[in-house]
Automatic annotation (TrEMBL):
Gene transcribed to yield this protein: mscL
Name assigned to this protein: Large-conductance mechanosensitive channel
NCBIfam families xrefs: mscL, PRK00567.1-4, PRK13952.1
Upper classification of the organism: Bacteria, Pseudomonadati, Bacteroidota, Cytophagia, Cytophagales
Membrane-spanning segments: 12-34, 82-101
Keyword vocabulary terms for this entry: Cell membrane, Ion channel, Ion transport, Membrane, Transmembrane, Transmembrane helix, Transport
Pfam (any one): MscL
HAMAP family named in the record: MscL
Membrane topology reported for the UniProt record: Multi-pass membrane protein
């Protein structure tokens, strides 16, 4: 029973839950960015490059063949277009994350620039001031 209790304590800690939420949001964010790159950004870039679709770019290493039984053996290709697409996706995701972190850091920096309230004087000093004020009254 001890191991189950330890696991429960571990699983419900704030950091683990925060991490799980971050992973889920990150996966959804990745899908959005991938769709943005694939569906919005790459078509105009393909047109500018003469109608090239990066996902179709490949190098055929071994052509498609038909074996003795009449079965088709698929061609072996190096799909460097998909690799280029993934690099573009990564650069865009990295840039967006950079902008988000830069914004968060500038917000934190503004909060740090606000002057902090002066620390409260020690209790003994406060008591001495009260005694002084009482003696002045008499």
């Amino acid at each position: 029973m001890g191991m189950l209790k330890e696991f429960k304590e571990f699983a419900v800690k704030g950091n683990v839950i925060d991490l799980a939420v971050a992973v889920i949001i990150g996966a959804a964010f990745g899908k959005i960015v991938a769709s943005f790159v694939k569906d919005i950004l790459m078509p105009p870039i393909g047109i500018l490059l003469g109608g090239v679709n990066f996902q179709d770019l490949s190098l055929e290493l071994k052509p498609e063949e038909v074996d003795a039984a009449g079965e088709t053996i698929a061609a072996v290709t190096m799909n460097y277009g998909l690799f280029i697409q993934n690099i573009v996706d990564f650069v865009i995701v990295a840039f967006v994350i950079f902008l988000a972190i830069k914004g968060i850091n500038s917000t934190k920096k503004k909060e740090e620039e606000k002057p902090a309230a002066p620390p409260a004087p020690p209790k003994s000093e406060v008591l001495l001031e009260e005694i002084r004020d009482l003696l002045k009254k008499d």
